[in-house]
Specification:
- The chain folds into two domains: 2-19 and 231-418, Enolpyruvate transferase domain (UDP-n-acetylglucosamine1-carboxyvinyl-transferase, Chain), CATH 3.65.10.10; 22-228, Alpha-beta prism (UDP-n-acetylglucosamine1-carboxyvinyl-transferase, Chain), CATH 3.65.10.10.
- Helix content is 31%, strand content 26%.
- The chain contains 14 helices and 25 strands.
- It has helices at residues 22-31, 48-59, 86-91, 98-106, 125-133, 164-175, 190-201, 233-246, 261-270, 308-314, 335-341, 371-381, 394-397, 403-409, and strands at 3-7, 12-17, 38-42, 63-67, 71-75, 108-112, 137-141, 144-148, 156-158, 180-184, 205-207, 213-217, 225-228, 248-253, 273-277, 280-285, 295-296, 321-325, 345-349, 352-356, 361-362, 365-367, 384-385, 387-391, 413-417.
- The strands form seven sheets. A four-stranded mixed β-sheet has the order 22-24-1-25.
- A hairpin with a 3-residue loop joins strand 4 (63-67) and strand 5 (71-75).
- Helix 5 (125-133) runs parallel beside helix 6 (164-175), helix 8 (233-246) packs parallel to helix 10 and helix 11 packs parallel to helix 12.
- It is globular and about 65 Å long.
- The two termini are 14 Å apart.
- It binds ligand EPZ.
- Ligand EPZ binds next to helix 1, helix 5, helix 6 and helix 12.
Length: 423
């Protein structure tokens, strides 16, 4: 089993590039089905979930091939079939994002119900109710979703909560619907804006992304384009928290503070010096860290749930106690037990977790429980005395192109030991 070996206790110093955003490239890969031309996606991160999306496109008869390190060429001209196998759907939790695009392109779609994940149940009821409002007939017998739509007609849809995935799915479906669709109470994440920018580059007429109302003038033929994916704000937040945790000075090229201002605000409150410029973000932490006011996760522009674990890890040795409130997912404190093994003092009660700063952390063997929980273990390990062994790296590989490369560039003492393959 592969593992990371992290030797903590030394300050960070260095620069690194921030990879393309996982949560932007996944819906954009689904959106390539809306055009029969070739799409060139630049800045595409090499991630397990991206590979899984490419496999879904190939299974549908499309071409999806890497050109160079981070450029993915997609050509859906030869698309055939509209069904995604159960095995492929299970490989990537967010395969549901393909539903709307396949339906818009092929008039029908068949996917198995995406399961829950480590974070708890991941319902898609808002996706399905929105698709039905646009004219889709959907049956879900035996865990398989079968969708049909002889005609998709635009209309107003009001989401009962600002779901990122539902907003994206309905934007893509609306591109294939005749007339105008407005999505009210839409998610406002930067990844939604990136999807709108990609669709616009393909000739779609989509407006309002980043606000609570997104409007799509559907039924327009879309052409191919060359598009560069936005930088990953949660990867950037991870490395800012790494600098806060270990101390030192880092510069993250391509990171955009407007995408993670709630995270940088908390890091400043804790005692870091964070400034944007030169096309990136610099973070310096010299003195000790202080606890901060309660951190409540919320839909964008609130504090991102994906940064909860990594900020918690950065504050384990801060002076005082910080209260976290996880409001987005039911089961997003699974990293706490592992952090406790390193000497952290954290009490969880329902949606709340109280982190009391300790004087020191010690390296220990720990296991990733989920993607961002795994990253949090690495952030904590940088501030721990001695060596930490991090296993179950498949979780980290879903969202970080090369954590070792990036943290080494920032001065961390980290290595990856690949498992011996059985003879
Ligand atoms: C996206 O998930 C991200 N994933 C998640 O990142 C992120 O944590 C989440 O948005 C919130 O920002 C991708 O973009 C691939 P939601 P998504 O629909 O779309 C409930 C990571 O680590 N809900 O905004 O699934 C849902 O249960 C991942 O990169 C319904 O009830 O998030 C959750 O409680 C983890 N019904 C809340 O809404 C629905 O139909 C937010 O979910 C849809 C969602």
């Amino acid at each position: 089993m592969s593992q990371l070996i992290i030797r903590g206790g030394s300050r960070l110093e260095g620069e690194t590039d921030i990879q393309g955003a996982k949560n932007s490239v996944l819906p954009i890969l689904a959106a390539t089905l809306l055009t029969a031309d070739q799409v060139e996606l630049r800045g595409c991160p090499r991630l397990r979930d991206v590979d899984a999306s490419a496999r879904i496109l190939r299974a549908l008869g499309c071409e999806a091939r890497w050109e160079g390190e981070n450029t993915l060429l997609v050509d859906t001209r030869q698309v055939q079939g509209c069904a995604v196998s159960d095995q492929l759907c299970r490989e990537m939790r967010s395969s549901a994002i393909f539903l709307g695009a396949i339906l818009a392109r092929c008039g029908q779609a068949e996917l198995s119900y995406p399961g829950g994940c480590e974070l708890g149940p991941r319902p898609i009821d808002l996706h399905l109710s929105g698709l039905r409002e646009l004219g889709a007939e959907i049956s879900d017998a035996g865990g398989v979703l079968r969708c049909r739509a002889s005609r998709l007609c635009g209309r107003e849809i009001v989401l009962s909560l600002p779901s990122v995935g539902a907003t994206e799915n309905l934007m893509l479906t609306a591109c294939g619907a005749s007339g105008i669709t407005t999505i009210a109470n839409a998610a406002r994440e930067p990844e939604i804006v990136d999807l709108q920018d990609f669709l616009t580059a393909c000739g779609a007429r989509v407006f309002g992304a980043g606000t609570s109302t997104v409007t799509v003038e559907g039924g327009r033929p879309l052409h191919g384009c060359t598009y560069t994916v936005m930088p990953d704000r949660i990867v950037a937040a991870t490395y800012l928290c790494a600098a806060a945790s270990a101390g030192g000075e880092v510069f993250l090229r391509r990171a955009r503070e407007e995408h993670l201002s709630t995270v940088t605000a908390v890091l400043r409150e804790a005692g870091c010096r964070v400034c944007s410029g030169r096309g990136g973000i610099a973070c310096t932490r010299e003195g000790g860290l202080s606890a901060v006011r309660p951190v409540r996760t919320a839909p964008y522009p609130g504090f991102p749930t994906d940064a909860q674990a990594i900020l918690m890890a950065a504050l384990l040795k801060s002076r005082g106690a910080t209260v976290f409130e996880e409001n987005m997912f039911e089961n997003r404190y699974r990293h706490v037990d592992e952090l406790t093994r390193m000497g952290a003092s954290i009490r969880v009660s329902g949606r709340a977790a109280v982190v009391s700063g300790v004087r020191s952390l010690r390296g220990a063997p720990v296991r990733c429980t989920d993607l961002r929980g795994g990253a949090a273990l690495c952030v904590a390990a940088l501030a721990a005395e001695g060596e930490t062994l991090v296993s179950e790296l498949c979780h980290i590989d879903r969202g970080y192109e090369d954590l070792v490369r990036d943290l080494r560039a920032l001065g961390a003492n980290i290595a990856r030991e690949e498992a011996e393959l059985p003879a």
